[in-house]
Description:
The longest helix has 15 residues, at 188-202. The strands form two sheets. Strands 2-1-3-7-8-9 form a six-stranded mixed sheet, with helices on both faces. Helix 5 (112-123) packs parallel to helix 6 (159-168) and helix 6 crosses helix 7. It has a domain at 72-247: Rossmann fold, CATH 3.40.50. Helices cover 34% and strands 17% of the residues. A hairpin with a 2-residue loop joins strand 4 and strand 5 (141-145). It contains nine helices and nine strands. By secondary structure, the protein is α/β, with parallel strands linked by helices. Residues 217-231 have low confidence and may be disordered.
Amino acid sequence: MIYLQNGDSLPSVAACQILLNRHLPSAQILDVDGDFGRLTEAAVKAFQRSKSLSDDGVIGTNTWRELTNGVNIQIVDYVDTYDDSLEVMEEAFLRRHGGTNIESPKYCFINVRTIYDGIRAACAVKPVVLLRFYGHGNSGFIQVNGSLHYMDINAVDTSEFDSFLISLKPYFASYGSIEFHSCRTGRGRDGRNFLNRVASNTGVPATAGINDQLAAWAENDAYSIEPLRWKRRNVRFEGPKRTAYPGGSFENWIANVPEANMSFAP
C-alpha cells in the first residue's frame, strides 16, 4: 500500500510524478520535483477520473494499482516481526493491502546474512520502486531481528551492513527509494550519517523519521481492527523526516533518472 497526498515531499512522490507523466500530454507534463502540490493533485484527480476511480486527489491503494498497471516495478516491505506487536500492527495490514512482504525470523538466533539474503531475494523479482523497513530504532540505527541484529551506523564493524546495501543497488528502479519506518532513526548527526551511508551505497534516496513513529495502532486498542485513518500511519511518517540523496541533493539525484525528463504521451 502507498498513501500520498497534497503537501507530501518525498522521493516516492517523484516516482508517482514520473508514473503520472506516462498518462499526460506533453503540454501537461509535471515537473518531477518530489513535491505533491496543486498541479500534482490535479493530475492525480484527472487520472482517477480516467480510470473511473473516486477523484479525491490522493494516491492510495487503488490509484497506485492503476498507475503501476503494466509497469515492471514493486514495493517491498521488511517487517521485524520478532516483536509480536509489529506483526499485528504492521505486517498483517501491509499484507492485506498488497505488495511483497518479508518477515524476520521469530524467536530464533539466526545469522544476519540469512535475513539479508531474504530481502535480496524479494528485491530480485522485479525492479524495486520502494523498499520499506519496519522495526524499532533510534538515532542512526534500526533493528532487523529484535535485539539480535541491527543496521547501526555506530557498530564496531559495519562491513556487513555496507556490503548488504551495495548488493541492493542493482535491484532498484532508477527512481526507487528506501524508507525506514522506525522511531527516531533519522534524528541527529547519527541519523544523518546513517541515511547518507544508505543513499551512497544503494544509489537511491533514503528517508527516515526524526521523531517516534506511531505505527498502525488505534487510539484505544492496539490489537483491534483499527479504522483505516489509523492504519495509514504505517505507510506515512509521523512528524518531520530526513532524506539523504545520492549525489548530495534531490537535484543531483533526479538529474540521473532518465524517466524524469521523458514525455510518454503525445
